[in-house]
Specification:
The protein is 16% helix and 34% strand. The protein has 85 residues and is an alpha+beta fold. It has one domain. The structure holds zinc ion (ZN).
Length: 85
């Protein structure tokens, strides 16, 4: 039986390619990335905030900064503000 366990290019989760379903699309906003809402795939809003924090920390420009960043996550009509260290 041939099955691939791979990282999804859309949501970056590891899963079986034949049964994988991307998590729902949400949006986030952070001042460093401009005023536009940016797409992110996440299981829920807290998950989205964690993913944004990871992306932020992987960005070389900010690797040496330990400041909290403020991120707004939007899921449908609901918006929540997160502080990520
Ligand atoms: Zn996916």
């Amino acid at each position: 039986m041939m099955r691939d366990y791979k990282k999804c290019e859309v949501c970056e989760e590891f899963d079986w390619t034949d049964t994988h379903k991307c998590p729902p699309k949400m949006y986030f906003k952070h001042e460093d990335w401009g005023d536009e809402w940016q797409e992110i795939h996440a299981r829920h809003m807290d998950d989205a905030a964690i993913r944004v924090g990871k992306m932020y920390n992987e960005n070389g420009d900010h690797a040496l900064m330990n400041d909290e960043i403020e991120v707004i996550i939007k899921n449908g009509e609901e918006e929540k503000k997160y502080l990520i260290v």
